[in-house]
Design goal:
This protein is mainly β and about 180 residues long. The protein has 2 helices and 13 strands, in the order E-H-E-E-E-E-E-E-E-E-E-E-H-E-E. It is globular and about 50 Å long. The N and C termini lie far apart (about 35 Å). The relative contact order is 0.22. Bound molecules: 6-O-phosphono-alpha-D-mannopyranose and zinc ion (ZN). Zinc ion (ZN) binds next to loops. The site of zinc ion has 5 residues, from loops.
Amino acid sequence: NNKIVFPELFFTDKNLVGRDVLKISRNLSDLKGIFADAEAFERMPQNQLAYEVSSFLPEKEGTPGGLYFGITYLYPGKVGNEYMMTKGHYHANVDRAEFYWGLEGEGMLILMDGQRNVWAEHVFPGSLHYIPGGVAHRMANTGSSLFSFAACWPSDAGHNYAEIAENGFSARLMEVNGVPHLI
Ligand code: M6P
Ligand code: ZN
């Protein structure tokens, strides 16, 4: 397929830990509970590929001062009227920040601060998004083609999925009259 290729790894440091690109994929079954329309979700094939993440993790997880890089390939689709999206997370080290930037296709970055205020930013090829510490983040594919974005985050950020799994985001990105609305 023609999706954006991962950058060529080019470095001279012989001591880097993660020398290879780590690839993970998430099926619909990995996203159980995050969509509003549970019945529509159950009717969909649970082994359907939702997104893939390729990452380069040159430092040991938890290393202060190091950086990680990843590309997420989020497939198009909807569950009911809700756009296909990533699980979303706060960072385990809650004050750690992150950059996201758009590569191909289009989507929305959904953000939620510690007071559960939610807002969203339009993501498109070339757009750059700064996610401050303490802000939960999730991407939604609002287009009809593959949505790919890159990310750079600290190697001591970690992922806190539990908070989102329990309480979700306080707004959802739904298609209303053909356009995305934060509801
Ligand atoms: C980006 C980064 C990763 C994250 C991935 C998928 O590449 O933020 O840390 O794992 O998106 O998002 P999630 O972990 O919320 O499914
Ligand atoms: Zn993150």
